Amino acid sequence: MEKVFQLGSRSFVLDQDKAEEAFAAKRIINGRRSMAFNLLPLKYPWAYDLYRTMKSNHWEPEDISMQKDVEQWRADNILSDAERWIIRMGIGYFSAAEGIVGDNIIHVIREVVTAPELKLVLGRHAHEENIHADSLLYMISSLGINPHECEAMFEQIDTIRKKNEFVTRTSHSLRRDLDLTLPENKKLIAKNIFVFGQCMEGTQFYGLFGMVLSLYRQNKFPGIGRMFRYTLRDESNHIELLRNLFMDLIGENPEIWTEEFRQELTDTMSEAVNLEKEFIQDCLPMSAVGLSADEFCRYIDFIADRRLEGVGLRPLNPGIDNPLPWLAEMMDIKKEQNFFEGTVTEYQKASALDMVDNDDL
Ligand code: FE
Ligand code: MN
To answer: How far apart, in whole angstroms, are the C-alpha atoms of residue 322 and residue 318?
Structure first.
């Protein structure tokens, strides 16, 4: 079916069948590749919706005052050694982790997906990792922490090194041209998306998130706590993005969803959980007020099962309760009033797509 647009003496013919063909050729992987960024027609509307949600949550580290945090850090009667250590571990671990995620998004996942709306939202994801990395820089410079100490943590703290090795291991094999029509290679990319979204951002980030927010709840490190809350809100979108991507990839390539592959993924999550529990012990080597390593470890079991169930896998500890219910409350930032009032709303402009009538294509 053709539609003719007459403008003055010129006429333009647009072909409905071509548009439908382009739509059908959109795939998570192995779809049509085009130099033009053909967002329309949208095949994965969730990706565009998520992109809009993510940009409406935009924040900048410098908008948050670090003044109280600096006062507390410098005073010698406010913080315990254990509390300072948690902040050092938080800054040290995330300085490496945010960059690793952003790099994998750009150089692995965004490279292999073919639909432009997926590339759009992944570009935003990578940008948010840049903001997170920048927020850590801002914390380091405000507190006057020696940047070389943070760098050294990546190598010298064994549990950080092991967590980083666990995730980067799944990306090495994908940093080259792969024949993604082969089931074993499809599994490699599916596993990478699972490891980064559900194991790392979805589970291994939550030990420190919990500890830092526990301090924040005691009015310690209010600036860092706020930044962690905004980061956490971003992470929940990243987890959803990579979950949707994973589910649609499996939906389009059902031959890889074998019992064996499902078991491999569950075992991978189990490894992620063990690494996180060892890491929690390093973050809390001595007791601190209101912080129990045991509770955080159980929380990791709880959250890991939510991630597994989210992608249709069996939980490791069926029926486990959330030992830290206050954390869920703290993480639900939408309830907060006056959240960046003025700043956020400015970004929430109607998008161009609202004005496009899809039936016209
Ligand atoms: Fe992040
Ligand atoms: Mn993230």
So the answer is: 12
89-125 per-position pLDDT tens digit: 999 999 999 999 999 999 999 999 999 999 999 999 9
Which ligand is nearest to the Cα of residue 202, counting in written order? Answer: 2
* Residues around ligand 1, an ion, CB closer than 5 A: 98, 129, 132
**What ranges do the domains of the chain cover?**
48-344+353-360
Q: How far is the CA of 202 from the centre of ligand 1 (A)?
A: 11
Is residue 17 within 8 Å of residue 234, measured between CB atoms? no
How many other CB atoms are found less than 10 A from the CB of residue 6? 8
Looking at the CA of 122, which ligand is closest? 2
Catalytic residues: 138
The token pair at 53 is: 């949600």
325: CA distance to ligand 2 center in Å? 23
**Residue in 116, 92, 107 with CA at minimum distance from that of residue 31:** 116
Largest CA distance in the chain: 81
Could you tell me which residues are beta bridge partners of residue 10? 7
Which ligand sits nearest to residue 239's alpha carbon? Answer: 2
First to last CA, the chain: 11
CA–centroid distance, 202 to ligand 2, in Å, is 9
Buried b (16+ CB within 10 A) or exposed e, 204-235: bbbbbbbbbbbbbeeebbbbbbbbbbbbbbbb
CA of 128 to the centre of ligand 1 (A): 6
The residues, any chain, with a CB within 8 Å of residue 227's CB and separated by 6 or more, are 61, 64, 135, 138, 139
pLDDT in tens, 212-265: 999 999 999 999 999 999 999 999 999 999 999 999 999 999 999 999 999 999
- Please say whether the structural domain 48-344+353-360 has been given the CATH code 3.40.50.300: no
Say how many Å lie between the CA of residue 201 and the centre of ligand 2: 6
Could you tell me the pTM of the whole model?
A: 0.91
